[in-house]
Amino acid sequence: MAVRYPRPLRPGDRVGVTSPSSGVPEKMRARLEVALGDVRARGYEVVVGRCMDGSGHVSAPAADRAAELTEMLTDPTIRAVVPPWGGETAIDLIPHLDWGRLRDAEPTWLVGFSDTSTLLTPLTLLTGTATVHGNNLMDTPYRAPDGLLSWLDVVAAPPGHRFTQTPPGRHRATGWDDYAVHPDVREFTLDSAGSWTRLDATGDVTAEGRLIGGCIETLCNLAGTPYLDASAFARAESPEGLLVYLEAGGDDAFAICRNLHGMRLAGFFDRPGCAVPCRGRGQGEHGPAEGNDR
Predict the structure, then answer these.
(1) What are phi and psi of 248, to 5 degrees?
(2) Cα(169)–Cα(146) distance, rounded to whole angstroms?
(3) Cβ atoms of residues 1 and 236 within 8 Å
(4) In angstroms, how far apart are the furthest CA atoms of the chain?
(5) How far apart are CA 155 and CA 37, in angstroms?
(6) pLDDT tens profile 145-190
(7) Which of 27, 92, 234, 237 is buried deepest, with most CB atoms within 10 A?
(8) Would you say 219 and 244 are in contact if contact means Cβ atoms under 8 Å apart?
């Protein structure tokens, strides 16, 4: 199963918006319209799905959410799919998705982070489709910090294009922007200094290989199942090993420690060549772009 890269987006392409986990509450709809406007400003047509309700913790019943996501990912006229944000229980879609149909369809970009990792990573492992671990739709209006890219930049990059991302050296320590009060906010507050830290040594490190990973709090629940068989994927596509990235959205250090040990016991780290846990927090969750294989 070779890795399949969706073709780059071009002006006039259609972008699908659906909520495979949490929908958008009425008080956040103004922010949604700002974000949709930014996608349209790039020259894309936006297709907003039926599964967007934000009155509960999920946007629709699992079967309906799975059907809409499958429809968008297999529609040859839709070139990218992005959720408004993550949520809590996209895992209930997994048994409802038509994986064979997704594998046979022309690849389409799926973008997101947080609970969207529950879908991004299995999509790559089971169908070979490269995905983008990047900002969700509600975060799209933010200007990317220096050194980082928006998902809109990544999905439009031409084949073979190289891009470099560097940490801005800052992070947001506390709080969120209130989209209900400030739906058009574009400046992302990074009010504390911070940088990457190596836990095994000091100095620079060079590594290369296929990149796979996502949010620890959601992926840990798939460990040991056919939907997170990174070892099988590595044997087929990256026999030299995988580069694994893991980000934490909100759990404390002990919970993350338990999750990592559980993933190790389930065999998730059997074949990877390098595991890189990192700490992160997702703006806009009821909670720059990095491709699983790009």
Answers:
(1) -110, 130
(2) 10
(3) yes
(4) 50
(5) 17
(6) 888 999 999 999 999 899 888 888 888 888 889 999 999 999 988 8
(7) 234
(8) no
Q: Contact 179/185 with Cβ under 8 angstroms?
A: yes
State both tokens at 34.
């700002």
What are the distances in angstroms from CA 108 to CA 15, 211, 258, 288? 10, 18, 34, 19
Q: What is the pLDDT of residues 267-284, one digit of tens each?
A: 998 876 655 544 443 333
Burial class (CB in 10 A: 0-12, 13-18, 19+), 206: exposed
For residue 219, the surrounding DSSP H or E stretch is helix 216-219
> How many whole angstroms separate alpha carbon 162 and alpha carbon 226?
32
In sequence order, the β-bridge partners of residue 192 are: 171
- What residues have CB less than 8 Å from 135, skipping those under 6 apart? 111, 113, 142, 150, 151, 288, 289
Q: Identify the CA nearest to 228 among candidates 271, 258, 257, 291.
A: 271
Tell me the backbone φ, ψ of residue 206, rounded to 5 degrees.
Answer: -115, 130
- Helix H or strand E encompassing 128: none
79: nearest Cα among 140, 134, 13, 160: 13
What is the four-CA torsion angle of 207, 210, 214, 219, rounded to 10 degrees? Answer: -120
**Which of 110, 115, 82 lies closest to 221 in space, CA to CA?**
115
pTM for the full model? Answer: 0.90
Structure tokens at 12: 């006039």
Tokens, residue 13: 């392409």
Structure tokens at 165: 């991302």
